[in-house]
């Protein structure tokens, strides 16, 4: 139970905490709320610039929207913004920056309801790893996309990306296990761009495992489809794969396809792919051609580096300026909020003091009345418990003794000196027990316990009731605790009183046995018995059961109508 003084201080602590929380709420009210309309408008501007290929402007607006976004309140817009920013960084070759941007969104993926947003995030991450030759990580994120509830077309893209990562890891046979099942898929066949790219990749895998004929067949099929589409990017890839196929067998044909590849890549400014094509051309060139293509390679390589570096710097500058502006605005807002807060605290200082005093007085009064009422209640409960205990003793001990004495006087010839003396002894015992109850002492204090127990038991033996005792003298009762001896006395007395009142028995048997740890007592009579299924444990039987349990004993009652009444109980010696 918590001490009164500690409870008092606890209540005061709660009071002051409530008061000071009022001051904290003032600060919270100064925080700006999330402006979804403004964020949505910025995202719309960014999307327009992105669609017009104005990537720097798009990145600026996306970054502004991100600085105002709330990932907890609006995770959809937050993840969408990160996806677009990462894609722009990826287009500029800033794969590390793109990965860093997307990593911010990973903790909030679990809150996204639109699986397409998650697919885009995982796919973009996978592409970053693929472009930095971390193929294992790339495959990991591509496989994550396959677990999403997305349309078949997106799953085909993911599977194709896994195959490309396996090619890059030079696991060509594993790549074929991905590509070949897709070859006859309806969704692939009706998509010429995807189908042509797939056939070309299958051809490349066969070429890499030295199955040149199958490789050539698939590459030419893919090329035929791509020629109809006139897509420079895809045509350039097919021509480059054919150049690589003939590189060690037919240098002139390899050079021819490499030149075609270079021309196609040049149409869309695919710089990295153009460099790959130029390397093959230079390998098979000489004299002036070698010099010309080498100069083109060096110039393009320098241009790629400068452009990529400039783009990275521009994007970093956008993020830096946005961050600095945000920090400056935050400082100004914080300074203004602090000034307003000081003014408000000054205004509310007296009010807070009054509230503190009033609440403290109220809590003290409540605590006073609570403790006073509790003390009164405890006094009433103590009085009730005392009265109940005395009442129980009167029933359990004195009433049974009186009934025993009445039964003795009724069935014995009091003209005999022996019976008369025994009656006087019983009355003297009743008187002693009455004093015991008033002094809260145990009722059974007789030093010669066996004699006292025998006298009590024999008092129930009449002309019509035969009482048989066995084993009582075999137990060394000096080893038994006084409380347990008293319990045995009262339990047997209660059973015999019930027998005289209700059972109409003519024969009663009580046996005492002892093992190493327990004393076992069996009671049986040939009375009319009771139905144990309908037995109600109250008054006498309740007292019997309760007494046995208090000395950590066990009791078993068995009886049935007209079959007598049996009780066995045991309790530990120590």
How many distinct domains? 3
- The CATH class assignment of the largest domain is Alpha Beta
Could you tell me the radius of gyration in angstroms?
50 Å
Q: The CATH topology of the largest domain is what?
A: Heat Shock Protein 90
**Pattern of helices and strands:** HHHHHHHHHHHHHHHHHHEHEEHEE
Say which CATH homologous superfamily of the largest domain is assigned. Answer: Histidine kinase-like ATPase, C-terminal domain
CA-based shape: elongated
Q: Tell me, rounded to a whole number, the average pLDDT.
A: 82
Fraction in beta strands: 5-15%
Describe this structure in words.
With 574 residues, the chain is an alpha+beta fold. It folds into 3 domains: 34-169, Tetratricopeptide repeat domain (Serine Threonine Protein Phosphatase 5, Tetratricopeptide repeat, Alpha Horseshoe); 230-338; 395-572, Histidine kinase-like ATPase, C-terminal domain (Heat Shock Protein 90). Helices cover 72% and strands 6% of the residues. The protein is built from 20 helices and 5 strands. A 5-stranded mixed β-sheet has the order 1-2-3-5-4, covered by helices on one side. Helix 9 packs antiparallel against helix 11, helix 13 runs parallel beside helix 15 and helix 14 (251-267) runs antiparallel to helix 15. It starts with a helix and ends with a strand.
């Amino acid at each position: 139970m918590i001490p009164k003084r500690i409870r008092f201080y606890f209540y005061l602590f709660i009071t002051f905490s409530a008061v000071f929380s009022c001051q904290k709420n003032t600060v919270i009210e100064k925080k700006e709320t999330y402006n979804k309309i403004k964020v949505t408008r910025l995202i719309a501007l960014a999307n327009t610039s992105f669609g017009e290929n104005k990537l720097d402007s798009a990145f600026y607006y996306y970054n502004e929207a991100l600085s105002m976004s709330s990932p907890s309140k609006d995770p959809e817009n937050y993840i969408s913004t990160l996806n677009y920013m990462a894609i722009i960084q990826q287009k500029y070759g800033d794969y590390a920056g793109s990965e860093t941007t997307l990593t911010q969104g990973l903790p909030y993926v679990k809150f996204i309801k639109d699986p397409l947003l998650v697919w885009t995030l995982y796919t973009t991450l996978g592409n970053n790893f693929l472009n930095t030759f971390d193929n294992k990580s790339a495959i990991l994120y591509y496989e994550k996309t396959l677990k999403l509830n997305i349309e078949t077309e997106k799953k085909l893209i993911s599977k194709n990306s896994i195959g490309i990562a396996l090619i890059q890891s030079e696991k060509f046979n594993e790549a074929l296990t991905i590509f070949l099942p897709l070859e006859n898929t309806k969704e692939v066949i009706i998509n010429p761009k995807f189908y042509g790219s797939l056939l070309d990749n299958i051809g490349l895998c066969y070429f890499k495992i030295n199955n040149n004929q199958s490789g050539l067949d698939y590459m030419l099929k893919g090329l035929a489809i791509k020629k109809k589409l006139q897509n420079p990017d895809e045509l350039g890839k097919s021509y480059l794969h054919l150049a690589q196929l003939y590189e060690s067998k037919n240098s002139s044909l390899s050079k021819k396809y490499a030149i075609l590849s270079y021309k196609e890549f040049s149409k869309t400014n695919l710089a990295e792919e153009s460099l790959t094509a130029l390397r093959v051309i230079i390998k098979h060139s000489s004299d002036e051609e070698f010099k010309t293509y080498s100069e083109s390679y060096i110039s393009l390589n320098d241009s790629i580096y400068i452009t990529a570096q400039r783009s990275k710097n521009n994007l970093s500058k956008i993020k830096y300026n946005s961050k600095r502006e945000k920090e400056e605005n935050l400082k100004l807002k914080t300074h203004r909020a602090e000034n307003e807060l000081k003014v408000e605290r000054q205004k509310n200082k007296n009010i807070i003091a009054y509230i503190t005093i009033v609440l403290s007085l109220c809590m003290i009064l409540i605590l006073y009345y609570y403790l006073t009422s509790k003390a009164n209640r405890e006094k009433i409960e103590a009085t009730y418990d005392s009265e109940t205990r005395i009442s129980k003793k009167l029933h359990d001990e004195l009433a049974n003794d009186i009934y025993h004495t009445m039964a003795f006087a009724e069935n014995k010839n009091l003209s005999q000196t022996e019976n008369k003396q025994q009656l006087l002894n019983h009355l003297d015992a009743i008187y002693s027990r009455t004093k015991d109850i008033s002094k809260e002492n145990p009722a059974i204090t007789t030093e010669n316990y066996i004699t006292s127990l025998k006298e009590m038991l024999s008092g129930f033996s009449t002309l019509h009731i035969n009482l048989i005792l066995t084993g009582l003298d075999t137990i060394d009762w000096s080893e038994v605790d006084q409380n347990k001896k008293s319990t045995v006395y009262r339990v047997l007395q209660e059973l015999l009183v019930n027998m005289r009142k209700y059972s109409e028995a003519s024969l009663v048997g009580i046996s005492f046995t002892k093992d190493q740890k327990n004393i076992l007592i069996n009671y049986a009579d040939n009375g009319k018995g009771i139905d144990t299924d309908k037995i109600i444990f109250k008054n006498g039987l309740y007292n019997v059961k309760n007494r046995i349990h208090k000395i950590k004993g066990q009791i078993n009652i068995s009886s049935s109508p007209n079959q007598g009444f049996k009780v066995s109980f045991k309790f530990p010696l120590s």
